[in-house]
């Protein structure tokens, strides 16, 4: 789908504040409410806008520790990769899983209450994932910058 300048302005505004009303959005991008609504519906139906979510403060919900986990698998067969991906998606503490090029096969972003909680997650979930040969955990000391907004 080709995005024009108006689409980009809509998407930029919604990435900053997804709860604004259609009327507020239309005013912000200088478009009529009906035209704005039609464009947003099109962006949704074509899959450009996938979902609307609430962004929670991890500290407020007791998830103060972020851990990046590099995982190397024992093999690279389609079955091994599929089994790993199926099971890692079931671990509630894993926020992101990326198939990587480089030394590790996968990079995970994991949230935990603290180091003891991460030890539990490691023992009960990560170390038991199918095909895992090696895990390397790196603890984030502080989040300097974080955004979910894609550059348009």
Largest sheet: 4 strands, antiparallel
Tell me the span between the first and last alpha carbons. 14 Å
Q: Going across the biggest sheet, name each strand in turn.
A: 2-3-1-4
Instruction: Please trace the helix and strand order, writing H or E for each element.
Output: HHHEHEEHE
Number of helices: 5
In helices, the fraction of residues equals 25-40%
**Low-confidence region ranges:** none
What is the assembly state of the chains in this entry?
Answer: single chain
- Mean of the pLDDT scores? 97
Q: Which radius of gyration do the C-alpha atoms yield?
A: 20 Å
Find the count of extended strands (DSSP E, 2+ residues).
4
Beta-strand percentage? 15-25%
Structural class: alpha+beta
Backbone shape: elongated
Give a description of the structure.
The structure is a single chain. The chain has five helices and four strands, in the order αααβαββαβ. With 152 residues, the protein is α+β, with helices and mostly antiparallel strands. Strands 2-3-1-4 form a four-stranded antiparallel sheet. The longest helix has 13 residues, at 33-45. The two termini are 14 Å apart. The mean pLDDT is 97.
